[in-house]
Design brief:
6-stranded mixed β-sheet, 17 helices
């Protein structure tokens, strides 16, 4: 964050609510607004306006935004009409793909159609050799004909991915300069991903081109909306966990497709360090989806091998796994009589039945019917309990018909939670057990508006004995937007070429520092990280290792940890070299930020909630009344603005020095 900004605002757009968190005068304030799916920028502008009104409009403000515009455009296939320009003879790269099948035993599986339709695949007669030398330069007449065809076929955006342009981008630069005369966005692979593997490079630059017009319109609308409001700078969170300027995001939207969830991981990393929490499995459950990740050794794992909406994306992305299971996930009985929950969501409009407009049963409605949710947003958002009961009753009728026996309202609601939790448990296993990590030694960090309702039950399933609920869990991803650095990543493929890694890394560092300077970051605030993607000779995939004189030995150790074996006698190849330049944000004291929110002292109320063994009276605590050192035994419910925590029987809760709720399972155990 910019140290010159007196007000810092993080805004995370979700499918149901838009979360706003404001840092001003050494304190945090958070609030939620309904998302506006038809025009996502409207909720953002409303949030900025309210934030500035609350803190006063004096001084300057910096806004960091976690956006779902790119993600939704990919998922819904609502991007631009995109053309792909490749080297002549390689036009079918998006159709050929890789040999790997997405479903191993399904011989009839159909891959999602390419983002660029076949009629917009164009080959250009040019060639760069593998060593970077020019074999055949494109002619001016061929490029002019290409431009004419693009105009005739109605291309709205262009992706250019020429063979071996990562070794020498001269032809891509020529094509880019000529095609810009068309007045439409042109994305070139040597800027987006200058690395080998033709298919991944082509899909990544195509995603960028596909999203570019929509993201540009969206961010320009935001820029116009904040003009004159006191907002000094608008930034956007990248999928890698670092922010970039809105102007850069408009040109390189492929870097923002996991923008919102990345904020939560950044906040989790900072919290783990501040409170010495050890390893964490993060669990972020919102209105439409659940995002999970692993933080081991203080850092989340990044990947360059992500697949988003069925499309490989090879830019740096935090290793986050997402499932369509959130508070708004719709429950139904399928044609085979099985209960299904999600991935379809009620979203912000109409929303769960209890919001007053929808009529289809959701996970949130099940929690309302079971008495686990009494109110939302501190009572500012009215809950229609009867509408939720009617929706669950209709589901119970369908379940009764499928089961051939009566199903009560409570059983239907509990079964909805069990199915949703089974979906989320599988996601948690993907980022831990399936990657060789035993989660029993970690804590489950639960955030998101709906996370606390299910966190303890999921921890029991994974045999995790501690659940941590941070401050402001309903807006924790927005908090991460405030905490993140400004980051630019650069890379270069060196496999098969005689390069001194240190000299190449020096060149990349110069490039990265120039890019970070263009983001308005002073060189004194820049931290540089160097890494190498390495593999055993003959392997197909790499492991990223921090670059040092001992990088090869570290590679052997990491290979042993991941795959259970290492071969120190086998040659190791350096495939890619990468440099990250991070403009360090102004530190935000999490302890100070939480202190004002925890006065402590009030006595709990009593409410009635349904668990697996039936209805029972349970204590109802307001989180602001739980001061550090306070202890609570389950079963209990803890409410706060934006989130609710269900503490089952067999669990105890304490409050640590910076306000985290620390939930521990007693030896006797318990179930929700």
């Amino acid at each position: 964050m910019d140290p010159e900004s007196s007000v810092r605002i993080g805004i995370d757009t979700g499918g149901t609510f838009t979360d706003v968190i404001v840092w001003s005068g050494g304190s945090l304030e958070t609030f939620k607004l309904p998302s506006t799916p038809d025009d996502p920028s409207q909720a953002i502008l409303d949030g900025i306006g309210l934030a500035l009104d609350r803190v006063g409009r004096g001084g300057t403000a910096e806004v960091v935004h976690g956006t779902t515009v790119g993600t939704n455009a990919l998922l819904e296939r609502k991007g631009a009409r995109t053309a792909l320009v490749s080297t002549l003879g390689f036009e079918d790269v998006l159709a050929i793909r890789r040999q790997a099948r997405p479903e191993l035993y399904n011989l009839g599986v159909r891959a999602a159609p390419p983002l660029a339709p076949p009629e917009l695949w164009f080959g250009l007669d040019e060639r760069i050799d593998a060593d970077g030398s020019v074999f055949r330069a494109p002619s001016d007449s061929d490029i002019d004909e290409l431009a004419r065809m693009l105009r005739a076929f109605g291309a709205e955006s262009v992706a250019v991915c020429l063979l071996f342009s990562f070794a020498n981008p001269v032809h891509e630069k020529t094509v880019e300069a000529r095609l810009q005369r068309l007045g439409i966005p042109v994305s070139v692979s040597h800027r987006i991903l200058p690395e080998y593997r033709e298919y991944e490079r082509a899909t990544t630059v195509t995603v960028n081109a596909y999203l570019s017009p929509r993201m540009r319109v969206y961010l320009e609308r935001l820029d116009r909306g904040v003009a004159g409001t006191g907002v000094k700078r608008l930034r956007v969170m990248q999928s890698s966990g670092g922010a970039i300027s809105a102007a850069t995001a408009a040109k390189e939207p492929v870097r923002t497709i996991l923008s919102g969830p990345a904020g939560g991981i950044v906040a989790a990393e900072r919290l783990a360090k501040a409170a010495s929490l050890g390893d964490l499995v993060t669990f972020d459950m919102g209105g439409t989806s659940t995002d999970v990740a692993l933080i081991a050794g203080g850092r989340a794992r990044s990947t360059n091998e992500a697949v988003v909406a069925g499309v490989p994306v090879a830019v740096p992305i935090l290793d986050i796994h997402t499932v369509g299971s959130g508070g708004g996930s719709i429950a139904r009985v399928d044609d085979g009589g099985a209960l299904r929950v999600g991935p379809e969501s009620a979203g912000a409009n109409p929303g769960p039945a209890c919001y007053g407009s929808g009529d289809r049963p959701t996970v949130t409605d099940a929690n309302v019917v079971l008495g686990r949710i009494r109110r939302l947003l501190g009572g500012a958002f009215e809950i229609d309990v009867e509408r939720a009961r009617d929706a669950i009753d209709r589901l119970a009728v369908d379940m009764s018909r499928a089961a051939g026996e009566p199903v009560t309202r409570e059983r239907a609601a509990l079964d909805v939670l069990r199915v949703a939790e089974a979906n989320m448990e599988r996601a948690l296993r993907v980022v831990s057990v399936e990657r060789g990590y035993d989660p029993r030694g970690a804590s489950l960090l639960s955030f998101g508006g709906a996370g606390g309702l299910h966190a303890c039950a999921l921890a029991e399933s994974l045999r995790i004995r501690r659940v941590i609920v941070p401050i402001h869990p309903g807006a924790f991803s927005a908090l991460g937007l405030l905490l993140g650095d400004v980051v630019r990543d650069v890379s270069r493929t060196v496999l098969g070429r005689d390069h001194d890694p240190s000299s190449v890394l020096d060149e990349l560092e110069i490039e990265a520092r120039e890019l970070i300077a263009a983001e308005g970051i002073a060189d004194a605030r820049v931290r540089v990280e160097r890494s190498a993607a390495m593999r055993y000779r003959g392997q197909s995939f790499e492991i990223d290792i921090a670059w040092s004189a001992a990088a090869v030995e570290h590679f052997h150790a990491e290979h042993q940890a991941r795959y259970g074996h290492a071969d120190r006698d086998r040659p190791v190849d350096v495939v890619h070299l990468r440099v990250r330049a991070a403009g360090e944000s102004t530190p935000l004291d999490l302890g100070l930020a939480s202190a004002a929110a925890i006065p402590g002292g009030a006595c709990p109320e009593t409410t009635t909630a349904c668990f697996a063994d039936g209805w029972r009276d349970v204590p109802l605590h307001e989180r602001s009344a739980l001061a550090p050192g306070r202890k609570v035994s389950g079963p209990a419910i803890i409410e706060e603005y934006g989130a609710t925590l269900v503490l089952p029987n067999g669990w105890t809760l304490g409050v640590d020095a910076i306000g985290n709720l620390v939930c521990d399972q007693r030896e006797t155990g318990g179930t929700a």
